[in-house]
């Protein structure tokens, strides 16, 4: 799996939800680009299912959520990837073995809010 493939999946899913982004917008905050919170949770849930990962939602939302950041996080967390470091812009966060204790996945959040597709 490479960044181009992951990015294309993210952009395709956004397009299915009615949000068309050009390559120049991949580094921009999705909320600032008009993606509402319900759609963003749906996107994260779909990406979790597609790539067999769980986002750490609390950590993810500490900074603007962009196509570029999502691509980096997915590549770093996808099964079979030996790395345990996630590059998020200039910062690098350490992912503890087994995940964080306060971890809530987008899938769980969507189920709780009744927004799961």
TrEMBL record:
Q: Where is the Carrier domain?
A: 25-64
Which InterPro entries does the record associate with it? ACP-like_sf (IPR036736), PP-bd_ACP (IPR009081), Ppantetheine_attach_site (IPR006162)
**Which keywords, in A-to-Z order, does the entry hold?**
Phosphopantetheine, Phosphoprotein
Top-level taxon in the UniProt lineage: Bacteria
Q: Where is this region: Disordered?
A: 83-117
* Basic and acidic residues composition-biased segments: 104-117
Cite the SUPFAM superfamilies for this sequence: ACP-like
Q: What is this protein called?
A: Carrier domain-containing protein
* Source organism (scientific name): Streptomyces longispororuber
Lineage, highest ranks first: Bacteria, Bacillati, Actinomycetota, Actinomycetes, Kitasatosporales
């Amino acid at each position: 799996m490479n960044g181009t493939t992951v990015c294309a999946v993210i952009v395709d899913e956004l397009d299915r939800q009615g949000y068309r982004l050009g390559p120049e917008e991949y580094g921009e905050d999705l909320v600032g680009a008009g993606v509402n919170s319900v759609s963003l949770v749906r996107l994260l849930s779909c990406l979790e299912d597609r790539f067999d990962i769980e986002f750490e939602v609390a950590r993810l939302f500490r900074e603007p959520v962009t196509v570029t950041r999502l691509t980096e996080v997915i590549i770093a967390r996808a099964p079979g990837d030996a790395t345990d470091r996630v590059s998020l812009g200039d910062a690098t966060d350490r992912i503890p073995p087994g995940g964080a204790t306060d971890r809530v996945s987008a899938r769980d959040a969507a189920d709780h809010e009744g927004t799961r597709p």
